[in-house]
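Hi F.,

I've been meaning to write this up properly since the lab meeting, where we talked about keeping a consistent format for the predictions we share between groups. The idea is simple: the sequence comes first, exactly as it goes in, then the structure tokens exactly as they come out, then a line or two of notes. No screenshots and no reformatting. I'm using this chain as the first example so we have something concrete to point to.
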Amino acid sequence: MRVALACPYAWGDPGGVQVHVRELAERLLERGHDLAVLAPTREPPAQQWVIPVGSPVDIRYNDSNAPIDPRPWSRRVVRHALASFGPDVVHAHQPTSPSTGLWATLEARAPVVGTFHSGATRARLYDFAAPLLRRATARLAVRIAVSDRAAAFERQRIGGEFRVIPNGVDVARFADALPADLGPGRKLLFVGRLDERKGFPVAIDAFALLAADRPDLHLVVVGDGPERDAVDRLPTLLRARVTMLGAVPNEELPPIHAACDLYLGPSTGGESFGIVLIEAMAAGLPVVASDTPGYDEVVTDESQGLLVPPRDDAALAAAAGRVLDDADLAAQLRAAGPERARAFDWSMTVERIEDAYRDALAIGRETDRPQLR
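Output, unedited:
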């Protein structure tokens, strides 16, 4: 099967959607499919199967950064790329975002599968544009949402039926990694963009509470963003116990996870899923995270992890302290996490996505889809 994947976000930037599309592409190639990924890029992509179709513009959305290409002339580039590749099916990610996913949905001659990743809590511009976007999404043969949260968000705005297929994770890559050398002591791990939605300042304040009477405790931070200076609010001696690794490619994360003892996921909301939580559980890390929609579909409180109210650094510190100080609880969570993570392994996820492609092809043979201009 010839499959064109349309990624709306800058290909080289960190982000869950980019990781999902890249790993999906790799699995499809392994399974013998012909493949092209269309995405905006800041620099030439490393993979020969990625076709640059625009340059990203950083736009603030859902309390985070969305590096998309909304410029209408990139639609013409997408049209040409699809015509040149000639896919049997087009898989558009975030097909309502004004970027590559939407342009591919509008320009595809082949049946289109759309995957929706958003778990935004508010979207006024989206609400305003919903009547027009419903016309575009009418072209989707199959609609996928990565979680019940994402399906509910989209159903309220564009209607239709969604099949829930969670993001995939390479469980073995995290489970089998050897630990990186991050120095002595016990380590908390934070991975994510250092922005408001991911709750990095909450993690910093929780670490300050925890570290006050645990001299062996350190915080390892993977990511970058506008809230990076939150670490400077710590006293000098505590600041010295924080390791800021900056942005790290996803494929280089497993040894970092393997070197740590507990994962902090203090997102303030707006998550459609919790791929960072799945990766942590796959690595055998106990998880302490916010009790928010999306995250609560991944972690069951007191089973694979502990869930606490968002934006509450004291609650986050108290729950993490329980795990650090209770060896039996920590062992229980370390055992339950990998079992839960296996439910999201790519070996199962890719088969469900291939089923969606086959269904889209069957629908495409039965339906004459007029081209929208």
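Notes:
The first helix runs from residue 16 to 30.
The radius of gyration is 21 Å.

If this format works for you, I'll send the rest the same way.

G.
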